Amino acid sequence: MGADYYDRAKSETDPQRVVEWLNRSVQVCPNFNARYMLGLIYRQQGQFDPALEAFSRAGARAVSSKTEALALARRDELLAFAGQLPQALHNLELAQRFHPEPVPQWLEDSLRNVRIETHQTLIPAADIGSIFEAGMQTSLDGRFVVRPAVNLPVHFDFDRATLNSAGNRQVQELGRALTRPLLKQRSFLIVGHTDKRGSAAYNQALSERRARSVKVALKRKFPSLAGRLETRGRGEAELLYDGDTEVDHQLNRRVKVIIEE
User: Fold this and answer.
1) Does 194 reside within a domain?
2) Phi and psi at residue 189, in whole multiples of 5°?
């Protein structure tokens, strides 16, 4: 019966009737497809809270890494719109990892837009800490396992490894996160990344110096982190985007912090 109601919803053109049939479907047999479609309809109508609830419930009914990723991404598009950028960014990155190839273009576009917005903000210690404290993230079907990591918009002076004022503020938040009680026994890898301008050798060296600068600043401000930090430079080897716009370059210049196993 639930499948019949869902099929009727798909054949309707009146949005209100679509919602009615979908609600009948989930009342008889809660399922991913009806919940997900409800979320899309509510979002189209500008009903934020019902859409958020529908996508969350769809995620709870997901049966594969693909459906889990779709519900997660749609939900966190809404959270980004509501200003919850760090959480939305983390979950959209998780959705991208959980979704088998090819990843839908709308998901890639949403992730890029949130990265752009987040690049201009300070990611608070509470958001960084909560990501690491959550531990390893495994897709519902067990196909994908993601180690906790955060891409931070740590800013440096142009073509240098010296933290500027915005970079120092972000490192301060990072240190506050890494010294939270639940993380005091954990170690972290700090990975520097550059854009693709310049030679590969130069970018590799620059990324290593920038990672070390973050480590030095953290140890100076938070002595308890001594012995818990390692650094690595990846230069231009792991670009987020291969384009040539200034936005592409900005997003590629980052510091990634990974919890060690």
Assistant:
1) yes
2) -105, 125
Question: Which CATH number do you get for residue 170?
Answer: 3.30.1330.60
Residue where a domain terminates, one of 79, 95, 118 = 118
Model confidence pLDDT, tens digit, residues 61-107: 999 999 999 999 999 999 999 999 999 999 999 999 999 999 999 99
Q: How far apart are the first and last CA of the chain?
A: 48
Domain that holds residue 54: 2-118
Count Cβ atoms below 10 Å from residue 179 Cβ, excluding itself.
18
- Is there a single domain that holds both residue 95 and residue 157? no
CB 57 within 8 A of CB 30: yes
Judge if 161 and 248 occupy the same domain.
Answer: yes
Beta bridge partners of 257: 150, 190
Phi/psi at 170 (nearest 5 deg)? -70, -40
Beta bridge partners of 256: 151, 191
Place of tokens 């997901």: 62
Among 165, 194, 166, 190, smallest CA distance to 178 is for: 190
DSSP label of 156:
B
